[in-house]
Amino acid sequence: MKLHNKKKYLSFLKFKRDFQQYGLEKARSYEIVLHWLSSRMSRSQFLLLSGILVGLTAGLAGVILKTLVHNIHYFITHKVHFEYQILFYIIFPFLGIVLTTVIVQTIFKGQDRKGIGAILYEIAQNSSIVSSVKMYSQIIQSAITVGLGGSAGLESPIAVTGAAIGSNFAQTYRLSYKERTLLLAAGASAGIASAFNAPIAGIMFAFEILLTGVVFTDFIPLVVAAVCGSLLSRILLQEDVLFRFYTREAFNYKNVPYYLILGIVTGLYARYFVIISQKVEHFIHKLKMSPLRRAMFGGAVLSLLCVLFPPLFGEGYDTIKAFTNGETLEIMENSLFRYFEIKSLTVIVFLVLVLILKAFATPFTIFSGGNGGNFAPSLFAGGTAGFLFAVVCEQLGFKEVPVTNLVLVGMAGTMSGVLYAPLTAIFLIAESSFGYDLFIPLMIVSVISYLMAKRFSAISPELKSLADEGKIFTNKHDKNLLFSLNTKDYIDYESQTINENASVEELFEMIKNGNKNTFAVIDNDKKLKGILDLDDVRPYLFSKETESLSLRKMMKAPPAIINPENKAQEILQIFDDTGFWNLPVVDNNNQFIGFISKSAILIGYRQLLKLYSE
Asked: Which residue in 54, 360, 423, 440 is a FRET match for 263, CA 20 to 30 A apart?
């Protein structure tokens, strides 16, 4: 062994001994190797290596999930035979939601937070620390739900899985909050890239939805992770599993009016989809049922919808491919519309009803107990809306309507309006269709739909409930940090209190021996009656007429009262509105807890900002 290599080997053995002395003797060999590498590499080098490893792992998870669902679909459609097709659509969607709910309640203890909101919640509220369970729980749940016919998509579960992989990798190697967040996003982007074989779309997804304030140098791990995830899916997945569209027309500037109108159509439909999803979610949450009964109810509704309209079964990508391949009649032949004479009007009515009911099928799948996301439903609905628009234009007598292009850009338009992610939508369709010459119509439709969505709601409605609760940020990096501050950590529990019946002399003695400038006046039940500060007391300190004074006369009502459940951002706004720097904190029974200062929150924010910037 050469001297140079021998020194490296001895250095590694010494690191391994030191590593084990810190209570990590059970660590796996590859973990020790990576810890050693992290000590030998620069930060940028190790982040690059981390991006590659996280990207490959998250990409593999995406491949496994897509393969599982594809095989389940193949098995139930080719190996399981029912005498009547109606039994097929009744049994499997119902079974998928019920089985998923049983697994969540029994194996995962009811922890069913899902969707992109789950990732944002972990970033803002849990310092980007994601439970290791999510590295496999989302795969199991969504494979059963969507594989058996749930009208939802796999992309959100894949993104959550990738985020969990990135977060746990960062936790294992004790990376900082900023690096942990970056690898979390890298895992999510790799998952999206593997699902669509679209690395740029994966990067745009992380950039638009998950990350803010990322500098260019920190963007490199995100890029390599997305590329690794995409390459892995391209190598391992079969062609019929990939999200690919090969047939399309060349872009013609004369067709721009079609795209302008389609942008408005997809924007309006996206808003309809969002509103119906919210109403269904609220309806299901108000049902006074056990989780299992709720799943049975939602499964029954979904099964009925799939019986009436089979395109609502599963992700729906096969239906969109059929549209682009001119196989619309085959889709209708599997539905109840086969009993009607197939005419243009019949096709239009069929497509309109599919679009209307898709907005019900997806939330019933997700919120009644299934697992999935809105990626695939928005793409399916957008493609259907684009095809419907093309059919209507043809029936109105327009010649040379770009049917396939309208299907493709319709997908981007609806996705942009539903997810508030126009760049992700544009690059996703461009990469999936090899349609880089379609950038102009993609941008036209996506931007129009996005602007219409923003006109209705400033932030994505899918995340609005979390934002209203103060659990996630909306669009500002500083809000993200403020939301991660826990109010209870900044309360002064050693605040001095005095009973409202105490004498003035007792107050003076407390001032003399204490070190506080503000005091809480409470009653015998520790309920807040008022506050006193040194400015209020100072005029009486050297007064000889203290016998006529009482604390009730000297105290004043606080300008505002803080509750421990108030978020840091809300409290800072209250401080700004009142002009005070110290305010009392009380519980729901008005019992005094302590004082909280504006300075304490600002110091906490600066410390977190410094930690994030390191």
From this structure: 360
